[in-house]
Amino acid sequence: MAQESEAQARWLLTGIVAVTGALWALTPVAFLIVDEVGRALLSGVLLGGLLVVYMRVVGRHIAGTGQGPHRVRTFALFAVVVYGAFPFMGSAWIYTPLIVAAAGLLLLPLGFAVGVLLAVAVAEFPLALAVSDHTPEDALLKSAGVFVASVVAAGILHYARFVRELRELRAALAEMAVDQDRVRMAGELHDLLGQTLASITLKTELALALVDLDRKRAIGEVTGVIAIVNEAREEIGDVVAARRSLDVGAELSAAVALIELSGARCDLRVGISEIDEETADALGWIVREAATNIVRHSDARHCLIELDRVDGRIHLLLRNDGARREAGPRRGSGLAGLRQRVDRLGGYLHAGGTGGDGFEVRVWLPAVHDLERVITIDSCPAG
């Protein structure tokens, strides 16, 4: 999860810095248009240096690692370079104070940052009047523009950080969904085996003590231990069988809830009301695994789950958008195990991309008409 979070932070940082660099490059371009090569070079050097520092500030903000002990000095660097260059740059430099305001919103505590933002916006008015022949109305518009642009720039960076944190939360939710059943089973096994193991220990110790005194009774105690072991084995088998037997209706509803909790919309369409128990167990596991993979391996915005009878066969479809491109095979997806389960029932499972960023899992299973092993599907539609 840590590596995935770092990759997301790098991706967001690259996009933001690329857009920011393109916007800042407009100032040197403006100087080149009016054939002021010297100012174009000087502004390019100054803005390029600030962009390098700004990139580090943005990277730390998105990653949530803090800005370190020198954040005030870093902010002062932006302020000195931007305002110190005004006597040499003139009117083409008029919008660069928004860099100072945006840096203040990222580097300084909220109270100081708001003060800096207001001071930069107010100072823009006399600067606009001083560096060119702007009217008061034009200077006021530039002051408002710097204010709005600074807030938007900082807001985009805060949004990028929230996106990273949301993705981490989605991954954590997926891990919790997977681990919840393991914790439940571990608790059941602990309760089941605790008293059993204690009985085995006592009977074994008693048998050892009776070996030299009463061999017949010792053999009886050992026989009792064997009976307890056999009984415990059957009970463990019952627990595992209960875990393996899933309610497909409950799994459909749980899948919708998990996907929508991650921020995506999920449409559920169920066209059948009864299904063979063994088939339902297999479908329940497929729904659970596929829903977990959607949350783990995608940035889905919309998902579709369909369960219906098509041409005399049971058909299950799970489709989502926002699938991430991952290097190498997906680990722990469980699709191989699900495919084996489907094969044993004489069915077919297909999982793959649908073009663009789509991904789907399709399952076809034979419809088994065994009235003694038919269950009712009861799920809550969502979407």
Automatic annotation (TrEMBL):
Boundaries of every Signal transduction histidine kinase subgroup 3 dimerisation and phosphoacceptor domain copy: 182-243
Keyword Nucleus belongs to the record: no
GO cellular component: a single term: membrane
Pfam families hit by this protein: HisKA_3 (PF07730)
InterPro entries in the cross-refs: HATPase_C_sf (IPR036890), Sensor_HK_TwoCompSys (IPR050482), Sig_transdc_His_kin_sub3_dim/P (IPR011712)
A single MF term (Gene Ontology): protein dimerization activity
CDD domains hit by this protein: HATPase_UhpB-NarQ-NarX-like (cd16917)
The protein, known as: Signal transduction histidine kinase subgroup 3 dimerisation and phosphoacceptor domain-containing protein
Organism encoding this protein: Sphaerimonospora thailandensis
